[in-house]
Amino acid sequence: xxxxxxxxxxxxxxxxxxxxxxxxxxxxxxxxxxxxxxxxxxxxxxxxxxxxxxxxxxxxxxxxxxxxxxxxxxxxxxxxxxxxxxxxxxxxxxxxxxxxxxxxxxxxxxxxxxxxxxxxxxxxxxxxx
Length: 129
Hints:
Blueprint: E1 2-6, H1 8-15, H2 19-29, E2 34-39, H3 40-48, H4 55-62, E3 66-68, H5 72-89, H6 93-105, E4 108-111, E5 123-126
Parallel strand pairs: 1-2, 1-4, 2-3, 4-5
Helix pairs in contact: 1-2, 1-3, 5-6
C-alpha cells in the first residue's frame, strides 16, 4: 500500500466547506492501493485550528487517516530540510517535519502549499488547480 499524506491545509479547507477539498479527498479515498495518512503535527494543526462546534466533524474527518508519529529521525531530518529550504522557499518548521515524515515513510504528499515542498526527492501533488 502506498502512503498518501494529506496536508493540514486541505483538511482545514474541507472543514470550512471548500468543494474542491471535498472532491480531492473523495478522489484520494477511492484509490484502493493507498492509505491516507497525516503527520502527528498536522493532526495537531487541524485540532488547534478547530472552531467551536466543529469538534465532532473534525474528529470524524481525522478518523479517516492513519496518523504517523514524530520520531527522532523525523526531527533530525526535518531540521536539515528546514535549514536547506526555508531561506529560498519559505518552508516552515511544520512543513519541514511533514516532508521528513514523507521521506522516511515513503509515499507522496498532497497539498495546496506545493511551494513549501521543493524537495526533489518527495513526490508532491497539488490537491486541485
